[in-house]
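In this section we walk through a basic example: taking a raw amino acid sequence and producing a predicted 3D structure, encoded as discrete structure tokens. The instruction is simple. Fold the sequence below.
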Amino acid sequence: MDLGLTGRTALITGASAGIGAEIARVLAEEGCEVHLAARSKDRLEELAEQLRAEYGVRAHAHAVDLRSAEELAGLSEAVGAPDILVNNAGDVPAGTLDVVDEDLWRHAWELKVFGYINLTRLTYARMRERGHGVIVNVIGQAGERPTADYIAGGTGNAALMAFTRALGGRSWRDGIRVVGINPGPVATARITAMIEASDRFREMAGDMPFGRPAHPREIADMAAFLASDRSAYTTGTVVTIDGGVSVG
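The resulting token sequence is shown next.
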């Protein structure tokens, strides 16, 4: 399906690996100019070079700490007003309330929660001046059914779900759509290595819907569709891709 994204500009955070890198790849395949943001300069530049070579698009690497307000402002200034913003960066530890102390909790939320909110604030203002744009927040299924064993992550995801719905419920007045995706387990390189190396993880994967975690491409294709005019009447919505786990 041609999503009509050729020539549009996209900023993707957490783009050095996993879901973020796959979203960047799909958007480049669709003809977007892509801006890749994460801390790993070498990995970003390697991916940017691959995308330029494979798809003939412009690709830019931005090595930034998304926890830093100053670096976020610099990123926003460098990119300007993208047609598409994909908030994807996140690294929230597992653990119960007595395990995840305040410093660890705040450190995680500075990236996953406040990083999303602050970059959205900067980018939204630029999109509003231009009169159009799409913001896609990659959040996580743990926000659907929070558990005590992943309390910081589930609580943060629930907050970002509310943020997406609240902002997206009226962003159409500015010509902007705000949507979210809640992936369940995804076969990133780290998860795949764990499954291959451990009988326990292999057994757990076998018990997942369809006997496997989601492929990163399945998340990336949804992100591209939501960002396109094929989904032009969608805003304030969070799409869950977890094989039905959250409603099972």
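Looking at the output, two observations stand out. The chain is about 45% helix and 15% strand. Residues 9-237 form a domain with the Rossmann fold fold (CATH 3.40.50.720). In the next section we compare this with other chains.
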